[in-house]
Amino acid sequence: MRLPTDEDDVDTTLQDEVAGLVDRVVTRADGVGTYAHDWWPRLLMRRRAGEDLPVPDLVAVPANRDEVVALTRWAHERRVAIVPFGAGTGVCGGAAPVAGAITVDLKRLNRIVELDEVSGTVTIEPGVIAQSLEDHLQARGWTLGHFPSSIHCSTMGGFLAIRSAGQASTGFGKLEDMVTGLEVVLPDGRLYEARDVPQSAAGPDLKRLFLGSEGTLGIITRATLHVRPLPEATRDRGFLVPSFGTGLDMIRDILRAGIAPPVVRLYDETDTAVVFGGQGLEVPQGCLLITGCEGREDVADFMESVVVDVAERHGATDLGREPGENWRAHRHSMSYRFAANFKPGGTFGDALTIDTMEVAGTWRNLPAVYEGVRTALLEHVDLVLAHVSHAYPSGACIYFTLGAMNDGDEAQALRRYDAAWEAGQRAATAAGGTGSHHHGVGLLRAPYLADELGEVGFEVLQQVKAALDPHGLANPGKLGLGARTNA
Amino acid sequence: MSASLPLADDVVADAVHGSYCPKMCTFACPIAEATGRDDAVPWSFHHTVVDLSEARITPQQAALGLRACSGCMGCQQPCDVDQDVPAQVRAGRAAVDFAPGTTSTVVAHLRDGRRPDGSTPPSDELVTGAPSLLVGCHDDPDTVAAARALMAAAGGGPVSVVQAPGCCGQLAADLGAPDVAAERAEALAAALPTGVVVALDPHCLDATRAALPDAEVVDLWTHLAAHRDRLAFTGEPLSVTYHDPCILARPEGVVSAPRTLLADAGVTVVEPEFHGSGTACSGAGMGLPSVDADAAAATAARRAAHLQATGVPAATACTRARAQLSAAGAPTHDLAQLLSRRLAETGS
Questions:
Q1: What is the rounded end-to-end Cα distance, in angstroms, of chain B?
Q2: Strands of A134-231, DSSP E
Q3: Separation of CA B292 from chain center
Q4: CA angle B52, B168, B154 (to 5 degrees)
Q5: Which of B41, B44, B39, B296 is nearest to A27 (CA)?
Q6: How near does any CA of chain A get to the CA of B338, in Å?
Q7: How far apart are CA B255 and CA A452, in angstroms?
Q8: Nearest CB neighbour to A34, from listed B17, B38, B81
């Protein structure tokens, strides 16, 4: 049984049943337009083109875990699909509505349950806005160390669901690496709890099954994350390296020296030009590299001295503290400036194509991933910027920004968008990399997931899905699992 | 309720811009934080105003979508382009002929020159003198008496107390009744002298400045702090936590004056989580208790928890905030009354 999609025919009996299960429901009569899209640029481009995007038939707003359980159990019995929705800021369409499904808004589950200062963990509900959590922790002398550029607007549940990474991931890891405990409501209403333990060898780590599942295997209702004391000192610095390749070598050597500065960022020549030009500064030859060392004062100083030493050995020019401190002061500015560029009549005219694509590869493959993806994107768009902002012992993520001006032609904007994504994703995997580092899959990358996981890998995922969600009711269509959506 | 007005081009342009911003100010909205509601996220107001301007939604849907704002301006703090979200909410409310909650009743009272609760403004308090103390439509007699005593001590003479005739116009504008706001502002202008006008309720500042362009309109605390050399306090040491009223702390930037006066009076301020220009809202502004009582109560409860966590009594400089916070379980002193009691003990 599904909710009909014609608003005149919405089954009020089903609405009443849902209303009896959760704190609040929002109907089409109330207005559900704000749930029509998340922050997938393709959906935004369609909205900008004047299209009426499909809206949910009904939005359920549970107030606590028990209501999520009751709703999910009911949906399982009634064969109604459900789409989890946090802040609606994911960039891959993971929260896009599905025809006949109920959208489940999880923002009411926004309690910071407990800060355990002995263990150094915090337990949260999924609707907590990430910056609110960070503010809460910092007021008590702690930090999560998770600083994605959308920290001001996104929920922790959304970040967990897509395996997010923040700007300090080189030192602190991705969000999934911080999870010590997890609670998930399965598609049939059962409650799975991964107990809060620092590490375990009790079989496979089932937490990892749900992190990155984007609501297709269940709804995360609670998580425990390890936190760390606020650093005493921060030492930001900038360098100019002769080439992108030299910069990659330098990052690798910094990590191999035995330190992991939380922030390591390397901009390619084009992105370097944008960074300097955007501040009205003369554009230098080479690539900008930013580091941010943190910790106890002597630790931060020592870490920075190692960075400076490695930089000297790679022929980098030390630009001092200013570039690093400037980056930190404006670390979220790109997100705040999105509207100025993207809106109708934006900075670059009407119908701008714009998005970001984060891929990753091993140090061996990374130059080929960079060249391959960049070349593939440039066949379809006007401008491609790239920077490395998440580095690991064996490789790193490259974050591409792509843009194209279309003189008001929205159809062309979409065509170029689709072609760029197809080419970029295929190029990433062809070069031995992954097409998704921390934005997830949603609808955007669903066509490429089988390639990414391999035939057997994708079959395993499908079988897990079938076992946990035999009726395909949990966020159908996302990750390429289950029915197609109407987005 | 009130004649609906078309949305101005600049309002729509700002809303369009905001509707393509990735909701960056979400964390800064105390109502979104307190309620977890999607329609309280500032981005949703932009989206609703755009949809209203394009007739994609009904007036009723627009009115429902424009409920959960207290005008606290928290969302403007991080904004790259200084969006005035409450201005868009006001414009949107004015553009629809639908009023949620008890809005219609409140607007009817204001139109008739009464206070929001339907009571008649007192008229027997007028005292000749300067400067003038403007009493807001929510201010109670004890607070007015305390403010008058403080001003008299600071100025060394009598104070002219002027009761806004029901409303200075701000609340009517907030509730989407610009015609009533204009009428009230006109009545206010007729009632008030020029010169220095000291507003007791910080929510009255903007409207009073607009109504009296030739007057010097200041908040009580800035006025008192400017004359603090004439104020003498005494009393036992006391600790309080001070709730910065949003309007005073953000648009007006008045955060040090109340603290300076408290320090002068021997009162130690224990800062709560979220203070100064980063204050958290009590849910009192923009007529929120009338428009969306649930959101107002949830917002007040969140703020009350911050204040209670300090372990000391709370005080604030806004009658509306005091009522909200006290109702939410954090008994809150009125700052004027608190200070005047310490003033009175000196015999000043």
A1: 49
A2: 142-143, 179-185, 191-194, 219-226, 228-229
A3: 16
A4: 135
A5: B39
A6: 29
A7: 55
A8: B38
Q: How far is A119 from chain B (nearest CA, A)?
A: 23
| A144, A153 contact by CB (below 8 A) | no
Residues of B whose CB is below 8 A from A33: 47-48, 51, 56-57
- Does the beta-carbon distance from A132 to B17 stay under 8 Å? no
Best probe of the A interface among B14, B19, B20, by most A CBs < 10 A, is: B20
Mean pLDDT over the full length of chain A: 95
> What is the tens place of the pLDDT at every residue in B182-236?
999 998 888 877 788 999 999 999 999 999 898 899 999 999 999 999 999 999 9
Q: Over the stretch B291-318, which tens digit does the pLDDT of each residue have?
A: 999 999 999 999 999 999 999 999 999 9
Determine the Cα–Cα distance for residues B172 and A225; give it in Å rounded to an integer: 47
Q: How many CA atoms lie within 13 A of A399 on its CB side?
A: 18
Where does residue B312 rank: exposed (0-12), middle (13-18), buried (19+ CB within 10 A)? middle
The span from the CA of B334 to the CA of A323, in Å, is 48
Cα(B185)–Cα(B179) distance, rounded to whole angstroms? Answer: 10
Which of A35, A129, A339 is nearest residue B27 as measured by Cβ atoms? A129
Q: How many CB atoms lie within 10 A of CB B126?
A: 12
For residue A142, give the 3-state DSSP assignment: strand
Most B CBs within 10 Å: which of A129, A137, A439, as the mutation test of the B interface? A129
DSSP annotation of A434 reads B
- A167 and A223 in contact (C-beta within 8 Å)? no
The secondary structure element, H or E, covering residue B181 is helix B178-191
ipTM of the modeled complex: 0.94
Best CA proximity match to A425, nearest among A416, A434, A414: A434
Q: How far apart are CA B33 and CA B26, in angstroms?
A: 8
Task: Report CA Rg, chain A.
Answer: 23
CA-based nearest residue in chain B for residue A330:
B80
3-class state of residue B262 by DSSP: helix
CB B103 within 8 A of CB B1: yes
Tell me the average pLDDT across A148-171. Answer: 97
- Residue B51's closest chain A neighbor by CA? A33
Q: What is the mean pLDDT of residues A462-484?
A: 92
Chain A nearest-CA distance from B26, in A, is: 5
Token pair 């190692």 is at which residue? Answer: A306
